[in-house]
Write a structure and sequence with these properties.
The protein is mostly helical. About 70% of the residues lie in helices and about 5% in strands. β2, α21 and β3 form a beta-alpha-beta unit. α10 runs antiparallel to α11 and α15 crosses α18. The longest helix has about 35 residues. The model has no long low-confidence stretch (mean pLDDT about 80).
Length: about 550
């Protein structure tokens, strides 16, 4: 194989081998990414035979991370991020502390010094946003409140890691016990500068981004050139991410994520997401290949027990800590399990932090190898973890006594206030979800003075609704207990305004059992979903595009 063209050689070997091994992994009922990682191991520098250019592969992987994060930004608005801040911010902070302590205690038991133990623990504490997004897209959780909490949680983790990466070189001498310790004043100045840079970046994206990006897409779309539109999307994702990294010190991933969120304000955001999808998928494969190239297989052979202990902290320890934290914030069982599965892996920031620790002489090379091995195994296991928590949830649902342990009977937000007027307890409307669609419906019902009760998973939403004297409860409406609390047995209508197709079907079944005569209106996202719901139930289903066309047609006829 020619070595005169390292870029072409790396791309062709990585994609070709990934296709073959991904196919066989799929046939063996394993996630395709297991094949991609194995491809990286085979063409990596630590296995015999052909060796691809790992530096080029790493740079291609960075482009993949940019495009993936840009893509999720196109589907994740700033409002989505802000509405989960009360759980994402404290949850991420506490989870990082818990995971860092677990990893540090493990490293100290091996005889490592405190600085190595802290860096090792921090590396195990932060999950990969890229891996999470892949799992969320495959399971359809990205647009749900549980998906928003998990993504918001990881975005907070990423921001914390940006601060850690900036501060680590500044405090390296202190951690290593060197005589040349940085003065405390300089340390606080470094922290202040980094924080200001991040704040300035976010401010620029909010102020200029909301106007510049949508206008740019609009002008490019007017040309009618598809290739220019695609080029605009890819150039925005990569260029803004790079510029954010150089000017403000944030990671490529965060820069691309915020660029996507701002471009979401454009009416062409859905087209931008579709046009960039093939690029995102191809470069995502290169990300997993580059991860595989980092592994030194001998670490698994020489220290299998250590590797197992590291994987145990990542997959089990972190997951339990996250689930307990989410449960402490009084969210549903499904939310706790979703977030815990999302954090049961580590990725890109772990590699960066471990590499920096080794270069500063704070972390032994064995630690870096253990982190990479733990990352590879946890990434490969993550799709199975998502399936596992799904089975666990079903098992708990089938056992009422066990399920009762996860219900907050004394939680004021999970039930209507005692002084609730009788008009909200009978002949009322039960509204599931209070997002963009649900809130609009709610506003119209208020104008008509029609009594309704909202069931919403986001506890912050419920608190805000109650302050505005809107009757609401917090909880997952696919849980019969939650529907009972809305007094659905006496309701005259159920309105489903949530995007989760699977959950909608579950809610309909439960509602019909509790109140066989209830009228049901359902929000749908495609014609296939509408046909299924109409076939299986007597519900009235509404498709966004179809209703928009009807409204526009009616307006046309009114004006003629």
């Amino acid at each position: 194989m020619p070595h005169d063209f390292p870029l072409i050689t790396t791309i062709s070997s990585a994609l070709g081998l990934s296709l073959i091994l991904g196919f066989f992994a799929n046939r063996l009922k394993l996630p395709a990414l297991v094949g991609y990682i194995l491809a990286g191991i085979l063409i990596g520098p630590f296995t015999p035979g052909f060796v691809a250019n790992s530096k080029i592969a790493a740079e291609l992987a960075e482009i993949g991370i940019m495009l993936l994060m840009f893509g999720v930004g196109l589907h994740f608005s700033l409002d989505d991020l802000l509405k989960v801040k009360k759980i994402a911010v404290p949850g991420a902070l506490l989870q990082i502390i818990a995971a860092t302590l677990m990893g540090a205690f493990l490293a100290l038991s091996w005889g490592w010094d405190l600085s190595a133990a802290l860096i090792f623990g921090l590396s195990l504490s932060v999950a990969s946003t890229v891996v999470l997004l892949r799992a969320m897209e495959k399971t359809g959780l990205l647009q749900t409140i549980n998906g928003q909490i998990a993504v918001g949680w990881l975005i907070v983790e990423d921001l914390i890691m940006v601060l850690v990466l900036v501060l680590l070189p500044a405090i390296a001498n202190t951690l290593s016990g060197s005589a040349s310790v940085m003065p405390a004043e300089n340390l606080w100045i470094s922290l202040l500068i980094t924080t200001l840079k991040i704040a300035l970046f976010i401010a620029v994206m909010l102020i200029a981004g909301k106007k510049v990006f949508p206008a740019m897409l609009w002008h490019i779309a007017r040309t009618g050139s598809r290739e220019l539109f695609t080029l605009c999307v890819i150039a925005a994702a990569v260029s803004i991410a790079y510029g954010a990294s150089k000017l403000f010190g944030v990671s490529f991933a965060l820069g691309a994520f915020f660029a996507g969120m701002m471009m979401r304000e454009s009416e062409f955001s859905h087209r931008a997401a579709e046009e960039s999808l093939p690029f995102r998928e191809a470069f995502a494969v290169l990300f997993f290949v580059s991860v595989g190239m980092l592994l030194k297989p001998e670490i698994i052979i020489n220290s299998p027990l250590k590797v197992m202990m590291v994987v145990g902290i990542i997959v089990i320890g972190k997951s339990i800590a996250a689930a307990l934290l989410v449960h402490f914030f009084k969210y549903s069982l499904k939310t706790s399990l979703t977030v815990s599965a999302s954090l049961a892996q580590i990725g890109e920031f772990s590699f960066i932090l471990a590499g920096l620790g080794v270069s500063l002489g704070l972390l032994p090379e064995e630690g870096q190898s253990l982190i990479v091995a733990g990352a590879l195994i946890s990434i490969a296991l993550n799709p199975l973890v998502f399936k596992g928590v799904s089975y666990l949830e079903e098992y708990i649902e089938r056992h009422p006594k066990l399920k009762s342990k996860f219900i907050f009977f004394n939680d004021s937000l999970s039930q209507l206030e005692n002084e609730t007027h009788s008009r909200y307890l009978a002949k009322h409307i039960v509204l599931i979800g209070y997002g963009r669609v649900g809130s609009y419906i709610g506003e119209q019902l208020i104008k008509k003075n029609i009594a309704f009760v909202v069931a919403e998973q986001n506890r912050e939403f419920v608190s805000a609704l109650r302050k505005n004297n809107i009757k609401s409860i917090s909880g997952d409406a696919s849980d019969p207990v939650v529907l009972v609390q809305t007094h659905i047995k006496n309701a005259k209508m159920l309105v489903l305004a949530i995007p989760d197709t699977v959950k909608v079907r579950e809610i309909i079944k439960i509602a019909c059992k509790l109140n066989p005569k209830i009228k049901i209106l359902v929000r749908c996202h495609d014609q296939e979903e509408i046909e299924f719901i109409k076939k299986e139930t007597s519900c009235d289903a509404f498709l966004g595009e179809e209703e928009l066309a009807k409204s526009m047609s009616k307006k046309i006829f009114d004006l003629i």
